[in-house]
Amino acid sequence: EMIDGGELGRIQYIYSNRLNLGKIRREENILWSFAPHDISVILGLVGELPEAVQAQGGNYLHQQIADVTVSLLSFRSGVKAHIFVSWLHPFKEQKLIVVGDRKMAVFDDVEPKDKLLLYPHSIDWKNHLPVANKAEARPIAFDPVEPLRAECLHFLECVRARTRPRTDGEEGLRVLTVLQQCQEALGHSSRSRPLFPSEEAKPYFAHESAFVDENVEIGEGTSIWHVSHVLKGSRIGKHCKIGQNVVVGPNVTIGNSVKIQNNVSVYEGVTLEDHVFCGPSVVFTNVLNPRSEIPRMKEHKPTVVKRGATLGANCTILCGITIGQYAFVGAGAVVTKHVPDFALVRGNPANITGWMCACGVKLKVKGNRAACHSCHRRYTKKQDLIQPLPGRGHNQKT
Question: Mean per-residue pLDDT for 208-221?
């Protein structure tokens, strides 16, 4: 009645404490045992559902059951509320406090008399600073009716008169909705986060399951996904996409805008230039004649994949060779020798079976000329090699 009549002014904050030693339960936590009453009261006072809910708690007597919780409710109207419940408190406390911009009301259900007090405190502004003016509390009289008895009588009267009770099934559903939101928030809050970040935000993204060693360079906009590992001394350019279960390094150089699909290991000695595409499960090697019992870590043969080249899924690249610019290695091919620029190679061992445009379309070669029907780039064939011609549509670097 005081809220509806405007005596407290604009409601700003509501908080309730429902604390005691016991009764300790095992079929539910303290949130579901104590908090429903206070949630119901707060929803009734505010007249709306919260738009945001937070909750934290502590499990002390049983690792799966919260003994203490604090729930924070934020309402669209600007009202904030918190509910503190515990069955591990040294004494019984049952308070509801409503803070308005004019007055404050305190309901203390433990007090034998003067359960409801009205505090006409005010806040004045002096020299642009808020100053609290305290005033004596004024007890508010009301009929000392047993709450549960009054609730039951109200219900019976609604049944007789066929009217809607104050706390009907819909109100119960709203309370359960808030309880469930608090429970979900309680679960999320159990995941600890560092209070102070150990380092500044990185310009690249690495999934929480990825491993990035120290002494690596990773460019802006690069993404590194699940269970991938970038080893020390490696350099990855800008805007690369490193898929799942990828190993890079140590001491590997990868250019800009490179895409590496899942399950690829880019070993030491391999260099991928800008815009290289590695399909799923591409295999690189770095030793020609490996033996388990003979260490040959100092016998790495360098492998270079030039700008714009595509390596198809499950192909194998033997070490010590170069894949030319915009070359295209077919899926499952085994590459044992150098691949010229723009060449399409397939098979085991891989052989040249055609020529590819920089845009990824197979070229039609007539005589010593070739043109792309998609992007209109033009090429010439000299000494069994394809070379780009300057002109319309040609903008690749050579």
Answer: 95
Q: Which domain holds residue 104?
A: 11-189
Kindly state the tokens that stand for 180: 């469930």
Look up the CATH number of the domain holding residue 278.
2.160.10.10
pLDDT digits (tens, 9 = 90+) for 348-364: 999 999 999 999 999 99
Interval 149-155 mean pLDDT: 91
Of 189, 214, 233, the position where a domain reaches its end is 189
User: What is the token pair recorded at 285?
Assistant: 């090697």
Q: Where are the alpha helices (DSSP H) in 162-230?
A: 169-189
Report the pLDDT averaged over residues 112-121: 92
CA–CA distance, 210 with 193 (Å, rounded to integer)? 18
Element (H, E) at 156: helix 147-161
In a domain, 63, yes or no: yes
Contact 158, 165 (CB under 8 A): yes
Answer for the pair 35, 85: CB distance below 8 angstroms, yes or no.
Answer: yes
Strand pairing report for 241-242 and 259-260: parallel
Report in angstroms the alpha-carbon separations of 20 from 33, 57, 86, 99: 12, 16, 6, 24
pTM to 2 decimal places: 0.53
DSSP string for 249-263 = -SS-EE-TT-EE-SS
